[in-house]
Amino acid sequence: MGFFLETLFGGLMAGMLYSLIALGFVLIYKASGVFNFAQGAMVLFAALAMARFAEWIPKWLGFDNLIVANLLAFVVAMALMVVLAWVIERLCLSRLVNQEGITLLMATLGISYFLDGLGQTLFGNDIYSINVGMPKEPAMILEGMFEGGLLISKEDLVAALIAAALVLALALFFQKTSTGRALRAVADDHQAAQSIGIPLNRIWVIVWSVAGFAALVAGIIWGSKLGVQFSLSLVALKALPVVILGGLTSVPGAILGGLIIGVGEKLSEIYLGSFFGGGIEIWFAYVLALGFLLVRPQGLFGEKIIDRV
Amino acid sequence: MMNDMPQAVQEQSAARRTGDVVLDLQNISLSFGGVKALTDISFDVREHEIRSIIGPNGAGKSSMLNVINGVYHPQQGRILFRGEERRRMEPHMAAAQGIARTFQNIALFKGMSVLDNIMTGRNLKMKCGLLANALYWGRARKEEIEHRVKVEEVIDFLEIQDIRKTPVGALPYGLQKRVELGRALAAEPSLLLLDEPMAGMNVEEKQDMCRFILDVNDQFGTTIVLIEHDMGVVMDISDRVVVLDYGKKIGDGVPEEVRANEDVIRAYLGTSH
């Protein structure tokens, strides 16, 4: 029982991290109807910026304080993501207003390759570390209830809490505020949104900035866990089954989808792995997503597509 | 079909006061690639009037409306709005100047409720920016409630109280058209552009829509530019009518004049459509 719970917690926390990346996808999809292939590249770009600025800024300014360095690096990296959002809107999206979703998808594919290259050109292509003071040592809890207690990674726990807070804030923003409503309106119909005075270009800058923020947070958390390197942009692939499961349009869906995938992966590896010769953690999520596509293509919480014929 | 409307409504529409020219279109030409959509079209719209644009399919009516609210940019011609010449204008700027519109193929936000759809019409009136929305909860909330009051007035006006929480995608066509009108009205426009507001409606729905259009014009003094296929409706509710055919203007004037115009009869009334 203790072992089961340990696996479960491990899965929940890994799942929270998947949700964090899935969130970036959902944000942009909800607000512009674009499936943003570049989300993974944005995570890498943001993490690289964070890692390098945290290293460079103390050198430039000549001080030695980890917290200040991290704070400044965070601010600069965030500013960079906003600039990036603005540039993407200016050079790319503003020219593709009222185009098909597939056109926009292809555009983000291009952006993704460009960002991968640009990030490594600007910031180098070694493996860098982000140290934001995440607790690295595991903790024992519930020692009274189970023999030997439960082993929990504090780092994962902190990361999961940050992700949860972010998701909650964004869900409220989308559902309760007028800006959130304007974002949803743009996602639904560009032309109609413009006709009621919603400036598309400003909305897109906002959305991509918010997605950049989500990418930065995800980049910092994943980066401090795995190190910042090119493979970080591939973590985004893990988020694909999450959004399929949760629904592309739902912020709570992204979180629940992430949890299901995280837990599913870990439990299936432990309890089913031996039947397949192990290693199912790698593909389990995709098979689950495939099954979902057959049964419920809009995902758990996706908006059901109502069309009068 | 309008003959069975209450006598009072018809008299009311005839007695409406019209004022100065608010929108002056001069020699507008628009083409897509080599295809000419509009050729050298001029007409004006006066304050408080209901100005209709009619013509057979493909005559350029919707293009004309799209020029007025900045979706298309004509290659030639001048547009004066409230005496000022308009340079390149985008739809959201037109909205900011008080021009609201509806679309021929309903363009509502399908996933949202009726209430949320109409609330989006208040977008321009909302002062609280992104940061206030995200941080300053109290004020943003207070503002939301103020706008909600306005929106409820629109909902009452259009008699759609009982569907305010329904997702618009699930509503019948006629009601969706009404919600779209509501979204435009929520912006409190001075100029309202209606693209075939009665297309695809049954007789009863058309009568309701006519009543709403006349009431909007009468109660709020809103200037209305209307595209419509149904000749009967146009002649009954319009102050003046422009007739387009193959992108050219072939008639302009009060309904009686237009009805008597030879070209119009040949191009429009004579053909089946």
What descriptors fit this protein?
heterodimer; A: 309 residues; mainly alpha; ABC transporter involved in vitamin B12 uptake, BtuC; two-stranded antiparallel sheet; 11 helices; 2 strands; globular; B: 273 residues; alpha/beta; Rossmann fold; 2 domains; 4-stranded antiparallel β-sheet; 10 strands
What do these coordinates show?
- The complex is a heterodimer of chains A (309) and B (273).
- Chain A has 309 residues and is mostly helical.
- Chain A has a single domain (2-295), classed as ABC transporter involved in vitamin B12 uptake, BtuC, CATH 1.10.3470.
- Chain A has helices spanning 2-32, 39-61, 66-91, 101-123, 154-176, 178-188, 190-195, 200-226, 235-246, 251-271, 284-295, and strands spanning 138-141, 150-153.
- Chain A has a two-stranded antiparallel sheet.
- Chain A is globular.
- The model of chain A has no long low-confidence stretch (mean pLDDT 84).
- In chain B, the strands form 2 sheets. A 6-stranded mixed β-sheet of chain B has the order 6-7-8-3-9-10, sandwiched between helices. In chain B, strands 2-1-4-5 form a 4-stranded antiparallel β-sheet, with helices on one face.
- By secondary structure, chain B is an alpha/beta fold.
- Helices cover 40% and strands 23% of the residues of chain B.
- Chain B contains 11 helices and 10 strands.
- Chain B has 2 domains: 1-8 and 16-98 and 189-203 and 222-273, 3-Layer(aba) Sandwich (Rossmann fold), CATH 3.40.50.300; 110-187, no CATH class.
- In chain B, helix 4 runs parallel beside helix 7.
- Mean pLDDT of chain B is 84; it is low at 5-15.
- The interface between A and B is medium-sized, with 27 and 41 residues.
